[in-house]
Amino acid sequence: MMRVKKTDTSKDRVAVIWCRVSTKEQFKNNCSIDVQKKECREYATQHNIQVIGEYEGKGESAKTTNGRQFQEMLKVVTSNKKVNTILVRTYDRFSRTGGEGIVVKEMLRKRGVDLIAVAQPVEKNTQGEFLEDLYLILSKFDNSQRRDKCLAGIKGCMERGDWCCRVPMGFSRKKVDKRHIITVNETGKILREAFLWKANENITSDEIMRRLNRRGVFIKKSQLSEMFRNKFYCGMIRHWSLGEDWIRGNQEILIEPEIFDKVNRKMNEGHLAGYEKQESNNFPLKGHVFCPDCHRPFTAYTVKKKNRDYYKCNTKGCCHNRAADVMHQKYINLLSDYRIPKCLFPILQRVFTKVFWENNQREKEEIKSLNIRLTDCEVKAKAVRLRYGLGEIDKEIYDDTMNVLEEQKDEIEQNLELYKNKLSNLDRYTTKVLKMSCKLGDLWQKGNARVCQKLQNLVFPQGIEWDDKNDDYRTFSENEVFRLFRKISTTYKYESKKNTPLSSEVSALVENNGNSFLW
């Protein structure tokens, strides 16, 4: 158990001053930093405290304790053994994180460093420590209330049709009284032409970009596609606070809904046509199978007289050439080697889940930390009830503290539930992978080029070689999960012939290879 270094109040105090404002605008436009420094200096003078440094959090939020300037101040405090005090104006200038702030304060206390809020004096005893924690918790509570009010304001604006967030390219926004007025600017008038070009002329996106560039509007291809699909341009708005539905907005309309719909129909037709062309590809192994001699990927061609497809190596001097239908059938046979017998599904699913959690230390640490926080929250609640029962705190403080602790407890329990759901999702995931392994060959044979390529890259992420001498494939790299599947499948076939129980061997095989899983 770590011994807490008690600050000797009989000795001279040596302190640093910490001041903070949340935004750079606050730092530029008001005197908050100067006021905080002034009050801390006056307190230090009155109490004979030597100040050896002043640190400022300019535009640094207290919603986290990971701020760069805050961490720099802590580094100085913890590295200088003479420093035994941090002066702040109020506790919310130190932290608005609640629990995290309390942890940092406790860490400092164990190093013999006191936190003093000059405008919120408390006694240095058990009751004072409780009040310090309470101030930090209430700072987070106040922060949460502000956030809720802000979000409620945003939702109210959106429900009225007033967009109050960042506007897309082509619009300008200004606030008049409490209303957000959004109008089409000069760039927007040029972008309107882009919608008309797309709707009425058979031109490509590259040509539209060239025309826009000539008129002084520079836009990327991805931005152009996103703009054509954004209903904001035809007078609609959608925000996460309102759900997934689009509603009528009050902004100026850049393009009529009829033109917008026509543009999107054209884009969808072009997308589907391209997808069908991809599906008609007869050479899914092109670029995936490599020559065993020069290690370059095979290309493909069709002999029209025979109406037959072939794969070949294009390197001069290489004579590797094989019919596509033969290579396709060989590939299907190869994928069949990864088939897992259905009778092994239950044990494999249990072992995979066990191995996953054993090899994901972060999840275990998070769950452990959450359980510790939950216990700590319950202990604090019990202490508050005891103190209220003894008459040490009044009803108002009791209610406020219990409300905050209940919120913390609910949040912790929700996070623990998320990890339970993750485990449940893992069960579904392993089931899906195991079922897929039983029909890799069928999926590849029946899938279009896109599906085939996804499967190929999943099982053999670095490709595969064709061995002319043996007229078959040679694997040099495979996904570790599927490599394990192949081992299990081979072992099962061998042991089945001897009528030997396999469950324990499968468990050992999976657990021994667990560290190399590529989930």
UniProtKB/TrEMBL annotation:
PROSITE patterns registered for this protein in UniProt: RECOMBINASES_3
UniProt xrefs under Pfam families: Recombinase, Resolvase, Zn_ribbon_recom
UniProt domain Resolvase/invertase-type recombinase catalytic: residue ranges: 14-161
Matches recorded under Gene3D superfamilies: Putative Large Serine Recombinase, Chain B, Domain 2 (3.90.1750.20), Resolvase, N-terminal catalytic domain (3.40.50.1390)
Keywords for the protein's UniProt record, in alphabetical order: Coiled coil, DNA recombination, DNA-binding
The keyword Cell membrane is assigned to this record: no
Listed SMART domains: Resolvase
Coiled-coil zones: 360-429
MF annotations from Gene Ontology: DNA binding; DNA strand exchange activity
Protein name: DNA invertase Pin-like site-specific DNA recombinase
